[in-house]
Amino acid sequence: MTRVLLVDDDIELSAMLAEYLEQEGFAVRAVHDGEAGVDEALSGRYEIVVLDVMMPRLNGVEALRRIRAHSRMPVLMLTARGDDIDRILGLELGADDYVPKPCSPRELVARLRAILRRGAPADALAEAGSIRLGQLLLWPGRLQAEWQGQPLPLTGSEFRLLEVLARQAGQVVGKPTLSERALGRPLARFDRSIDVHISSIRQKLGVNADGRAWIQSVRGQGYMLIRE
């Protein structure tokens, strides 16, 4: 049974979401402040965290920052509807996805399952099948990456995006395709998740000998991972 940590100061909403998640087969523990959320998240007892942004004392963004300092575990953020700043900041700090509040429990479950599917252990064939592209080496089954001979720390969403681009290196991949294959959902209008994740990957890869980013934007079309 997948263990979910729910961090939200809204006790009534937490109870409702926990009940729904448990009916869907998850084991849920709810805590109601950011500090307790960080401690629980780093305990090693959970497969995924649902983290509210707006909390007193320690908000969700700072809690995510502290979690990411020690762990790459999947994190889904609950953000205020229409608050792009919180969404973008959360994604930049390594959140795997977000759901605007008030949220539909059904949508929350769908997003959680999509994240968990992306991070699930692959079958034996996939586990053995690494992807090498120049100085980039990816192990999709383990969600591990190496760049220029060193471990490349990526969130689950960043890894899947880079994997999709690496499999089609030298070709432009449209945002709708990236969203479907890497994030497990259709691209929504005004959704900037892909851009934010790509920006983070670019920073981690640095630039090539020509000073260009390894991932190129093609206006109106999508992104392309260039070959060496």
Outline:
The chain is of the alpha/beta class and 228 residues long. It has 9 helices and 12 strands. Strand 8 (144-147) and strand 9 (150-151) form a beta hairpin.
Question: Topology of this structure?
Answer:
Layout: E1 3-7, H1 11-23, E2 27-31, H2 34-41, E3 48-52, H3 60-68, E4 75-80, H4 84-92, E5 97-101, H5 105-119, H6 124-128, E6 131-133, E7 136-139, E8 144-147, E9 150-151, H7 156-167, E10 173-174, H8 175-183, H9 193-205, E11 215-218, E12 222-225
Parallel strand pairs: 1-2, 1-3, 3-4, 4-5
Antiparallel strand pairs: 6-7, 7-8, 8-9, 10-12, 11-12
Helix pairs in contact: 2-3, 4-9, 7-8, 7-9
Would you mind describing this structure in some detail?
It holds the Pfam family Trans_reg_C. Keywords: Cytoplasm, DNA-binding, Phosphoprotein, Transcription, Transcription regulation, Two-component regulatory system. This is Response regulator transcription factor. Its main location: cytoplasm. The protein is α/β, with parallel strands linked by helices and 228 residues long. It has two domains: 117 residues, 3-Layer(aba) Sandwich (Rossmann fold), CATH 3.40.50; 95 residues, Arc Repressor Mutant, subunit A (Orthogonal Bundle), CATH 1.10.10.10. The chain is 41% helix and 21% strand. It is globular and about 55 Å long. About 3% of the residues have low confidence.
